[in-house]
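Rotation project, supervised by the postdoc (A.L.). Task for the rotation student: set up a whole-complex structure prediction and record inputs and outputs verbatim in this book. Inputs entered:
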Amino acid sequence: MINVFNNPELLLWAVPLMPLFGFLINGLFGKRMSVASSGGIAAAAVVISFLCALGLFVYHMNMLGKETVQSSAFTWMQVGGFKINFGLYLDRLSSVYMLIITGIGALIHIYSIGYMGHDEGFARYFAYLNLFVFAMLMLVLGDSLVTLFLGWEGVGLCSYLLIGFWYKHLHNTTAGMKAFIANRVGDFGFMIGMFLLFWHFGSLSYAGDASLQTGMQAAIASGTVDTTLLNWACICLFVGACGKSAQIPLFVWLPDAMAGPTPVSALIHAATMVTAGIYMVARMNFVFVHAETAMTIVAVTGGATALFAGSIGLVQRDIKKVLAYSTVSQLGFMFMAAGLGQFHLAVFHVFTHAFFKALLFLGSGSVIHALEHSLGHGNPDSQDMWKMGGLKEKLPITCYTMFIGALALAGIPGLAGFFSKDAILYSAFHRGDTLGWIIYGLGVAAAICTAFYSARLIGLTFYGKWRGDEHAYAHADEAPRSMAMPLLILALGAIGVGYLLLPPAFGVHHPPFQTWLAPIWAAGQAALPEGSKLLIPVEHDSAAIAAEWVNIAISSLIAIGVFLFAFAIYSRPANLAKVRALAFRGEGADAVMTPWYRVLLNKYYIDELYDLTIVRPTKIASDVLFVVVDVIVIDLLFVNGAAMVVKASSDLVRRLQTGLVRHYLYAFATGAVILIALFLLIAQ
Amino acid sequence: MDFLAAAFDPQNLKHHLSVITFLPLVGAIFIAFINGKRHREIKATSIFFSLITFVASLPILFEFKSNASFQMVEKVDWIPAFNIQYAMGVDGISLFLVLLTTFLGPIIMLSCSTNVHKRVKEFFIAMLVLETGVIGSFCALDLFLFYVFFELMLIPMYLLIGVWGSDPQGRRDAAIKFFIYTLLGSLLMFLAVLYVANLAGTFEITELTTRLQQMAIDGRFSKTAQYVCFLAFMLSFAVKTPMFPFHTWLPDAHTEAPTGGSVVLAGVLLKLGTYGMLRFAIPFFPEPAITLGPAICILAVVGIIYGSLMSVAQLLSNGDWKRMVAYSSVGHMGFIVLGIFSFNLIATQGALIQNINHGLSTGLLFLLIGIVYERRHTRLFDEYGGIAKVMPKFAILFMVATLASVGLPGTNGFVGEFLILLGTFGGDLDGLREGWSWNLHSTLAVFAASGVILGAIYMLWSYQRVFFGEIKVEENKNLKDVTATEMTFSLPMVAMIFLIGVAPGWFLNRTEPAVKAGLEQSVNAAEAIQEKHQRRTTGE
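Outputs recorded:
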């Protein structure tokens, strides 16, 4: 045991392999196991994996000061100059992700034992969940873009399987399919990006001697950096990120993905998988910094997505849909940071967001779980916030932990979300050019939405009067301990983790989170010209500090003001009627939605737009081509035409079909003789 | 059992290829003497013979040396008057196709033992003869011998569709269509074979290749003749592959063929097309191959997208499950042709491994469809829905096949598709010599990559149609999950899908020398020919 602990490579392999074993055990024998043993094994696998990750992080990386741990098991693919190892690569960036995945993953596994215990498919559920953790770890620990892609598509598969987990309802599996296909569109871009990088640099690895980094350094040294090509490569990679991390125009799958079990939404569609796009961009930061146009596209797409999704989140009635749009919006914030060159802030927002968003999802799961008890499984009323209210009395732990999560999400000063979001807004504010102001404007508007829907969610769910089925309210019980414990731990995280990256305005010039990640950006930063807007600021003069205080003041005022305003509306029954008047004209059954409400509720009709411009044309093209080309042109004209010509032979063929073997043998022999005779004739 | 012991003796490997080629035929002769009513004995005999063929073929893998030359060569004069030899041998290009055939053999026999009920004796004789024909085609080093095996294989295939097909009228039409297409292709090729053999004075493949290339450089093999012969060969192989627009026989053939027939067809028969391109069409006629390469690549990419759209079309109407998979084959085979005609090492290696992959994943799809067909006797999508509930093991197996088919990393499909697209994107050897820049092939790779999206659409959608939702059709409520026998023939396929997906090295290492040498030889010859052409036209 000590040996394993002292051997960083073994420890590193244990991190992804533990969940893989868990998957195999549950997949093969889960049917014969009880909930406790199935869930126990799955959770234990991730907990052990977390402990190994912790050992690597604390002992090997921090105490022994190892910068990277690499291990290659074997060559995966090798042809000519193309070589990809089946190898792992742990550095400071992947260590952060590894800890998030295994840590939060472990909590969600434990939570799932309580949440999914009554479901008949629990073994299947835990098998998928373990497989997901394995794939996600391969994504962040792989030592090349191709191994990253292995995990990338692997998590996509698990997401597909888990969204459609309750497969008897076709709309669940359709949502899963939508997720997989939208991701495939992104993967198409990802692949083209990889091809461009490979043929330019001759490698797709980021570890070892012949790596992308060395290729980049050689290009810089010889002055042959092809900016156009790198811009295209980065744009293509970003298309991949848009698929996985639900950015415009590929975000449409994420809200639908809420069809899956709620712990899945917490783990996959909030804390880990959807942040893979940010990981990939951060991993490739040394390429992205050379692609200024691509960076601008990243930042603007992020900003636009943040506001767009945030505004849709304002009107959703389904508690999980609010959180889904909120996730899309927060992912937009992360890409804003990445596009502005502040990769550490993007990763930091991934980190804080993982805590409070997982908390909010698990909390909503606790609410749904409590209501489903009497409403029945899959009843949409159990997620409709307009049919909730006053649940604070019934679910106090859920209420208070979710309150903390909502405050963190809204960016109330002192909580985790404040520090990460404020820093991103500041980096746009500080930039001082048009792009900076555009991003800042989008960011602030999105932040207003964030604070508003966070407060709305808490107010509608936990405060005011119960508006749903009385029976359901009476039977709503607080979550069992296995579900409450993760909520409490995550709430602590939502309060505390922000302090790892305090702004310079607070007198902290070397915040631990930023210092930890600094080596990852070093090469990219060194390649940037002095004064570049993409540089990560190191020195902070008094003017910068003053500007930062202004920004902090603005952000705080917005967050607190909007949160209080929205909370005042939605927690008081009397005010709800007034809000309703904003959304509907008329009363009762005759009520008509106001146009703005209709547009927001229908998500700006994006799904309909896609249906009209892509889905339908593809279907029509398939149908038309099938009938016109395959059936009419090729078969009727050419093949039947040819058939007419050889009608005589086809008659023969029909008669040949006697079914008697000796007839066939005669035919064969005759044919052979004819062929040989023909051959003899020509050969002579 | 002496011959078995002899087979494993490395000393005797010089006759090894003949042994595995004719073992199935021996089995067929055995069966001919069994009373036609004794189904169990007939089935057991064919399983036994295909199994020992597989076991006997393993030494080829282990004894194979990773170099470019033909190995385990055997040569005997056959018709000395015309320089026709009985010559057999394997190299990196044919090695895994032979192994794929012997590997699929027992699996197919076992599967057929569960679902063939009429004319059992004839069926298994046909299957075993077919196996001999296919192995022989891949091993033949003499063009005439190749042609004999090639034709030997077509007859049983035609019978499988025509006699054991599912629908009495449909199977006849499908068989005739198969016959017409094949006849058209192989007759032209036969004439071209005679022409080139007569010109070069040999049928032996390596010798023929060198001589033809030399004669083309010398001008003794005219440009027109090269192009005509190349097109005649290509037409035959394009039909076999099948490439768009010569594909319409395939959906009909697959739809009508019994499960075993479909698996052989998808698993190995289609591979003869792409094998023929790599082994004959390109090395014999390198100049036309490289000049027309881009056009063929464009056709391949059209095939990828077109085949995928056709699969979607099958889902839009209440289509046939097997027909959809058949159309998906058109798309997948397009990838392989694209890889071959990109004249790039990575792409060609990808094409070669994808050849095997397609046999495994599409073969598995057909095997699995056969399992439910045996229970329900329908393949219409609307007759299914929700069967994951009653057939959970089956649903998992089918998911694996689906994922391999859409090329998920970790499965074999990814390795092939990725290498083909990566290589194609780079462009042909010419372009790469001066450093990469955007070229026609890059554009083609981008279009081909969109097939990856379409593939996900129709595969997942069809999976949903069959497996998810509530069970609507009464008969499906009591469907039996896969039996032990069915598991036995499915699991080896699943294992191979992951084995190649995770560790394709043992494959790629063995094929690379031959692929590389062949590619360089063809490209160099093509350049020399073009140079000579130019000199002649400028009158130097």
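Student's summary: The radius of gyration of chain A is 29 Å.
Supervisor addendum: Chain A has 28 helices and four strands.
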